[in-house]
């Protein structure tokens, strides 16, 4: 039986619109694969606004212990990618960690 996630770890970052199309493939190549190897699931979102683009990565974890093992004991610490300072308007200072209260995935 597959493990259901109980924890969602959420990272948010924003770029200027003119660099968003370069940041997205970088984030896909460097930020997402480590999560795909370890987390139960991962999603990447992008919202383009007038002058900036927001990126949100949500990874799903069986429990706090699994997430803490992935983050080497610091689940709320932001681990910036090497080129984040080049792309992001400011470096995010925190990660959100949420308990999943409802997990119904009837999306079609």
Molecular structure report:
- The protein has 108 residues and is of the alpha+beta class.
- It has one domain: Alpha-Beta Plaits (2-Layer Sandwich), CATH 3.30.70.100.
- It is 30% helix and 30% strand.
- The protein contains 4 helices and 4 strands, in the order E-H-H-E-E-H-H-E.
- It has helices at 17-30, 32-38, 64-70, 84-87, and strands at residues 7-16, 41-48, 52-61, 96-99.
- Strands 2-3-1-4 form a 4-stranded antiparallel sheet.
- Strand 2 (41-48) and strand 3 form a beta hairpin.
- It is globular.
Biggest β-sheet, characterized? 4 strands, antiparallel
Q: How many domains is the backbone divided into?
A: 1
The N- to C-terminal Cα distance equals 22 Å
Integer-rounded radius of gyration: 14 Å
CATH class: Alpha Beta
Produce the secondary structure layout:
Layout: E1 7-16, H1 17-30, H2 32-38, E2 41-48, E3 52-61, H3 64-70, H4 84-87, E4 96-99
Antiparallel strand pairs: 1-3, 1-4, 2-3
Question: What brief labels describe this structure?
Answer:
108 residues; Alpha-Beta Plaits; 4 helices; alpha+beta
């Amino acid at each position: 039986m597959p493990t259901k996630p109980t924890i969602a770890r959420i990272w948010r970052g924003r770029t200027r619109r003119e660099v968003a199309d370069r940041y997205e493939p970088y984030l896909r190549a460097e930020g997402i694969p480590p999560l795909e190897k370890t987390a139960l699931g991962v999603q990447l979102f992008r919202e383009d606004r007038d002058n900036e683009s927001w990126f949100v990565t949500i990874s799903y974890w069986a429990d706090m212990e699994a997430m803490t093992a992935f983050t080497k004991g610091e689940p709320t610490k932001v681990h910036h990618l090497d080129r984040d300072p080049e792309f992001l308007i400011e470096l995010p200072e925190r990660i959100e960690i949420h308990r999943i209260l409802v997990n119904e995935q009837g999306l079609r």
